[in-house]
Amino acid sequence: MKLLVTGGAGYIGAHVVRLAEQAGHEVVVVDNFSTGLSQRVQCEVVNLQLASPDAQSELSALMQKHRFDAVIHLAARKQVGESVEIPEQYFLDNLGGLGNLLIAMRENDLHKLVFSSSAATYGIPDVDTVSEDYPGKPINPYGQTKLIGEWMVANAAVWGLRGVNLRYFNVAGCEFPDLADTAELNLIPIAIAQLKRGDNPIVFGDDYPTPDGSCIRDYVHVGDLARAHLMAVDYLDAHTREYATFNVGSGSGASVLEVLDALKSASRIDFVPEIKARRAGDPPRLVADTTRIEKVFGLKAEHDLEQIVSSAWDAANN
Ligand SMILES: NC(=O)c1ccc[n+]([C@@H]2O[C@H](COP(=O)([O-])OP(=O)(O)OC[C@H]3O[C@@H](n4cnc5c(N)ncnc54)[C@H](O)[C@@H]3O)[C@@H](O)[C@H]2O)c1
Asked: Mind listing the pLDDT tens digit for each residue in 172-183?
């Protein structure tokens, strides 16, 4: 197959590209390198800001040149805190980019799309594991752009789009050391960077209603997630497609303190975490119900927390 991957120079996108190439697919990447790294991709790369005025015509020209079979759309701004500070920019970039992409796909009879969504669409759920049918309500502009993005994908069915939304939970770890997550935005890369600087990793809040008092999240290995994208592309060919939206997580929760314990083992550094006050807007618990993706795609997370943390640690010390 020939695949267009937007955001393919990013942490997750580069894993998707690498696995797609290993599976024999031809890949073209579109990325503006706002956070992506050129050294992560060796295939044809088009440097394009998807939300720019020229994007529709440039995408259309690219689609005429290549006749892609499907698009995997990962390119987006993804920082929750920043989205609260500059919400307009998030709506413009994340939804403008998706709008330009959909128009170009419509013009070029390109009918298959996998969209990077997020567990941020759920907001603060009051259930142990959250299923795709849970009526979530995002609590920040970032999560709102992902939920509206899903609606844009659903509405494009009017011209025949087949879309799949993958709601990622906490993506971490590394399948290929040269594709590591180098941004210090999520718990594991932040804690590794703190440790490497000689600081103690920080825990925000140890008084949540959880067994050890720290927040519980669902950590999914980036390799398991990347595989889900290739399965989603195949699913778009299925004769009957009952579902458009799939959680991608491990299906089990780990607390911040458990993650840091795994980091102590991986690093062999016996640090004492520094406890700070809670941050606003952190749900105590956010764990995926993965029944649907296991049943329909046959996907079961292959990597546990120890493998996620040790692969991230090894890549950072490579
Ligand atoms: N990392 C996570 O835990 C997580 C969780 C849920 C959802 N997601 C989603 O997964 C996707 C990829 O995330 P990531 O962690 O790899 O982030 P990343 O920042 O490493 O990758 C995003 C890529 O998209 C590119 N990009 C951003 N805006 C663009 C634009 N307007 N035009 C062209 N290129 C643009 C960036 O340069 C980068 O290469 C995003 O859509 C993000 O919202 C990530």
From this structure: 999 999 999 999
